[in-house]
Amino acid sequence: MSTTATTSTAPAPAPAHSRRVGPLALAVRQGRLEVRQFLRSRESVVFTMLFPVVMILIFASIFRGEIGGGVSFTQYFVTGMIATGLMTVGFQSLAIQIPIERDRGVLKRLRGTPMPRWVYFAGKVIMVALIALVETVLLLAVATLLFDLDLPDGVDRWLTLLWVSALGTTACTLCGIAFSSLARSGRGASAVATPVALVLQFISGVFFVFTDLPSWMQQVAAIFPLKWMCQGLRSVFLPDSFGAVEPAGSFELGRVALVLAAWCVVGLVLCLTTFRWTTRRDG
């Protein structure tokens, strides 16, 4: 008695190593790697993610009175702390991290792999967005629980918080990537980026009431994104009446959006034209 063997015509599954990974999966995988690397560095966690929280603890503990109109100092300065936190994780951290990776040859090796170059930047963007979100939530939670911060009371204010944070973080991220090309080495990156960040914080109304600053300083600050981020966030956390004491007599949300969007474009152009994958000594 004979039997006839039958063979299936269905194609065999492709080996796991030959399966193509989609663009989104590539970006998420790279973002996960960037977040893990960030969290492994105690310095990054303390000086990038926890810095605004530490500053609001200090400011709120020292200045317990009112700034005027029934608004506490905490209510005013939390806007600057959120903005500086977004700038720190988007601009300062990338302006320091990328030169270190370039110095170590990480970027050179990545350029020699089949991985599309955009995946590297997508990973940085995902890392910045996630850390910025956690940092902002943590800051608001601490200020609310310990210092009676009044959270935004309307959907429109929460939406303003969202788009100001999104535009500001995008502008700072792109500028941080572009700025990373200025450092001659990874060792000198912090010395190049940190003073710039500190000066912007002092002139943009992070540590002082913005209208108390000299007029020339206000005009210089108006060139850069941080001032507009602080101003947009003040419209979220302060009463509408405080718009009248702004330099232009209002919070100017339309101009805030325009300036931040312009800086996104400027940052993107600078990234495309100045970013280097190798050090100067490598050519």
Description of the structure:
The chain is mainly α. It has one domain (23-274). It has 11 helices and 2 strands; from the N terminus they run αααββαααααααα. The protein has helices spanning 23-40, 42-49, 51-62, 73-103, 106-111, 117-147, 155-179, 189-203, 215-221, 225-237, 253-274; strands spanning 66-68, 71-72. The chain has a two-stranded antiparallel ribbon. A hairpin with a 2-residue loop joins strand 1 and strand 2 (71-72). The radius of gyration is 23 Å and the shape is globular.
In terms of topology, how is this protein built?
Blueprint lengths: L22 H18 L1 H8 L1 H12 L3 E3 L2 E2 H31 L2 H6 L5 H31 L7 H25 L9 H15 L11 H7 L3 H13 L15 H22 L9
Antiparallel strand pairs: 1-2
Helix pairs in contact: 1-6, 3-4, 3-6, 4-6, 4-7, 4-8, 4-10, 6-7, 7-10, 7-11, 10-11
Throw out a few tags for this protein:
283 residues; mainly alpha; globular; disordered N terminus; Transport permease protein; transmembrane
How many helical elements?
11
Spatial shape: globular
Unreliable segments (pLDDT under 50, ≥5 consecutive)? 1-18
Order of helices and strands: HHHEEHHHHHHHH
**What is the number of E strands?**
2
Helix residue percentage = 55-70%
Strand order of the largest sheet: 1-2
Q: How far apart are the termini?
A: 76 Å
Tally of distinct domains:
1
DSSP strand content: under 5%
Q: Roughly what is the average pLDDT, rounded to an integer?
A: 86
Gyration radius, to the nearest Å?
23 Å
The main sheet comes to: 2 strands, antiparallel
Query: Structural class, please?
Result: mainly alpha
